Amino acid sequence: MVIRRWQPPARVARPLRDARMPCLMKGAEMTNVHGTSLDLPTPDGTADAYLAHPDDGAPHPGVLLYMDAFGLRPALEEMARRLAGHGYTVLVPNVFHRAGRAPVVELPEHINPADRPEIFGKLAPIMQAVTPELAMRDAGAYLDWLAASPLVTDGPVGTTGYCMGGVLAVRTAAAYPDRVAAAASFHAGRLVTDAEDSPHRLLDRVTAELYFGHADQDQSMTAEHIGLLEQALDAAGVRYRSERYEGAHHGYTQADTAMYHAEADARHWQALLELLGRALPAGQQK
């Protein structure tokens, strides 16, 4: 199904930080969520990461959550805990681990438009260094970690990503089709480019169900780009849903930025949970 427009209504390794908090699950009582920082191995060294999961000691379906360009930070840890409260084990790796531990650049508590030029001046070379080849090599390590963890049920996982992470979610679904059952991409730019390995050219490899939540004020993913993406999705026979969130800017899910849009973020959570609920079975315990 394709929906082109939406209008908003009026094994844990070396723990570094530990957090337990109650998290409200829709239709359920309060449940405790456990969050911890950890290190995990990749072919190119150690990646720092954050893990959140229900605090019941049981395995749950795994979700690989890809960060936006601002990186692994408290706002994303909060998103991971919220998702874990719905019954998932959520891994958030520092995609920029080759440049150092997160945060790789200093960030203000709240990121305003005036802060962005200086931040992106520092982030740009770090982002460019994470080539698709390196990113997918890392993705294999992240998926291996989830597969080996006693906190994750057997079977395929889901992935969701934001900004550049939305591109990585789609690439991961294409690179590891037998290991990814669902992939969501929110306010991602550059899903359609002239490059031979543009994400939209990889869709014939995807077996996962996909969801795209586009910001309609995003110049890195225009209406023309969205149309080309949907044509490629249709040609590849991918199960997908593609929505444009009216009034939302690039970054609408990130609560610590000026781009945050509360209604669009609420819609994102609804869409993400519906996708994961359809695609991820309860799984087999290890």
Task: Briefly summarize what is shown.
With 286 residues, the chain is an alpha/beta fold.
Give structural notes.
With 286 residues, the protein is of the alpha/beta class. It has one domain (18-279): Rossmann fold (3-Layer(aba) Sandwich), CATH 3.40.50.1820. Helix content is 30%, strand content 23%. The chain has six helices and nine strands. The protein has a nine-stranded mixed β-sheet with strand order 1-2-3-5-4-6-7-8-9, with helices on both faces. Helix 4 links the parallel strand 6 (157-162) and strand 7. Helix 3 crosses helix 4 (164-175). The longest helix has 18 residues, at 262-279. 48% of the residues are buried.
Annotated CATH homologous superfamily: Alpha/Beta hydrolase fold, catalytic domain
How many domain units? 1
Helix content: 25-40%
Low-confidence stretches are 1-30
- Rough outline: globular
Largest sheet: 9 strands, mixed
Mean pLDDT: 90
Protein structure class: alpha/beta
The fold-level CATH name is: Rossmann fold
CATH architecture: 3-Layer(aba) Sandwich
Beta strand % = 15-25%
Spatial ordering of strands, largest sheet = 1-2-3-5-4-6-7-8-9
Number of helices: 6
N→C terminal distance: 35 Å
Quick one: how many beta strands?
Answer: 9
* C-alpha Rg (nearest Å): 18 Å
The CATH class: Alpha Beta
Order of helices and strands: EEEEHEHHEHEEHEH
Give structural attributes.
286 residues; 6 helices; disordered N terminus; 9-stranded mixed sheet; 23% strand; globular; alpha/beta; 30% helix; Rossmann fold
Give the topology.
Blueprint: E1 18-24, E2 30-42, E3 45-54, E4 62-66, H1 74-84, E5 89-93, H2 116-129, H3 132-148, E6 157-162, H4 164-175, E7 180-186, E8 209-215, H5 223-236, E9 240-245, H6 262-279
Parallel strand pairs: 4-5, 4-6, 6-7, 7-8, 8-9
Antiparallel strand pairs: 1-2, 2-3, 3-5
Helix pairs in contact: 3-4
